[in-house]
Design a protein that fits this description.
Length: about 375
């Protein structure tokens, strides 16, 4: 049956980077003569403008009947002062929740050619390869909505709420991921202050009994933020609460040198997934055609691996990105020497590297 990928370009550089990733995916599918349908829908500020809501029902319905969703980014200064309901970000939170995508996988690894692009010393970032598993549909982001209270509306509440099941399923995902990697899991919390974190620890210890081959460490989020800079190579899999994971993953992007390099996959227990870069809509560079498309192209590789069972082609995209970087090509956000390309030029290079890989593979098969 024909597979369907729903594309949600969103705002700012969102459409620029999803265009790039769709070009790469179409190139892969053309090569293997696979029939895949792409359907575009609105989300975020673009949907507020056209439909009066950041997450139209039509978008949710289309995502639900797809095999995978590719998302750019949402948000921008135009909607910054709006109330929650009319904020683009609400569209993103809403689609994650509506699809039940509880596990957000955010890997950070060193790309050897970019080692000097990191503000950290090369000796610190060499060989870094870890994954943050961020809980995505609960915690501080989804607690009871806060309203301004009190006589002068100067009291406010945000709630960090979890049920044991919500914690257990994401922790289980992280253990399974650790088993396929270096079998080290760091569970990050604030158990010295928060009751929710103390329950989180208990659940991690309980799930750990089912995975005796994984070495578990509990760490506090403040000290983890420090350790990510001091010694990032120590980490393998990190599992943590929604907002802690949001903050730590932006911090982790600096190991690669740019937020424009970090892909992500948001998963649930079946194969439907949502794939998006970790970065936002970058209003400061939007519309100039210079955004780094690699985070979204690498997210498209995850889409192939996790939602379409195409691990081989996912690997081909990842190796093509490595090849392009090794050749010195980069966008202006990466502060390395050599000529910077624009979004389209960078995407052309990825496609060229893919073609070289296809030709090589064909030669090997014929030999
Ligand atoms: P941002 O990630 O959009 O940008 C931070 C900085 O990184 C900017 O200087 C930007 O130019 C740069 N940058 C980000 N992605 C880049 C890329 N691909 N290539 C080159 N440079 C890149 O974060 P922000 O400025 O704090 O937020 C802007 C808007 O995006 C806000 O409305 C925010 O809510 C939203 N946002 C959305 C998402 C998402 O949709 N997943 C994620 C984060 C932020
Ligand atoms: C991210 C973003 C979103 C988040 C915002 C835009 C709601 O920062 O995907 O990391 O906080 O989850
Ligand atoms: Mn974020």
């Amino acid at each position: 049956m024909t597979k369907t990928i729903t594309v949600l370009p969103g705002d700012g550089i969102g459409p620029e980077v999803t265009d790039a990733a769709v070009r790469v995916l179409k190139h892969i599918f053309d090569h293997s003569r696979t029939d895949v349908r792409f359907v575009e829908k609105r989300i975020g500020g673009a949907a507020i403008e056209a439909d009066g809501t950041p997450l139209p029902q039509e978008t949710i319905a289309q995502c639900r009947k797809s095999n995978a969703v590719l998302l750019g980014a949402v948000g921008g200064p135009k909607w910054a002062g709006m109330a929650a309901k009319m904020r683009p970000e609400q569209g993103l939170l809403g689609i994650r929740k509506a699809l039940g995508l509880f596990a957000n996988i955010r890997p950070a690894r060193t790309f050897a050619p970019l080692i000097d692009a990191s503000p950290l010393k090369a000796s610190r970032v060499a060989g870094v390869d870890f994954v943050i598993v961020r809980e995505l549909t609960g915690g501080l982001y989804f607690g009871k909505p806060s309203e301004r209270r009190g006589p002068n509306h100067e009291q406010v509440v945000d709630t960090l709420a979890y049920s044991a099941d919500e914690i257990e399923r994401v922790v289980e995902t992280a253990f399974q991921m650790a088993e396929k990697r270096r079998r080290k899991l760091t569970s990050v919390d604030k158990a010295n202050v928060l009751e929710s974190s103390r329950m989180w620890r208990e659940i991690v210890n309980r799930v750990a009994k089912r995975h005796p081959d994984v070495a578990v460490t509990h760490a506090l989020v403040d000290s983890t933020a420090m350790q990510l800079i001091a010694c990032p190579a120590q980490f393998d899999v990190i599992v943590t609460e929604n907002m802690f994971g949001d903050i730590l993953s932006d911090e982790a992007s600096m190991i690669t040198g740019s937020l424009g390099m970090l892909p992500s996959a948001s998963l649930r227990t079946d194969q439907l997934g949502l794939y998006e870069p970790v970065h936002g809509s970058a209003p400061d560079i939007a519309g100039r055609g210079v955004a780094n498309p690699l985070a979204t192209i690498l997210s498209a590789a995850f889409l192939l691996r996790y939602s379409l069972d195409r691990a081989h082609e996912a690997g081909q995209i990842e190796r093509a990105v490595d090849t392009v970087l090794a050749r010195g090509y980069h966008t202006p956000d990466l502060k390395i020497s050599g000529e910077a390309l624009d979004t389209a030029g960078m995407t052309d290079q990825v496609i060229t590297a893919l073609d070289e890989a296809f030709t090589k593979e064909k030669g090997e098969m014929e030999a």
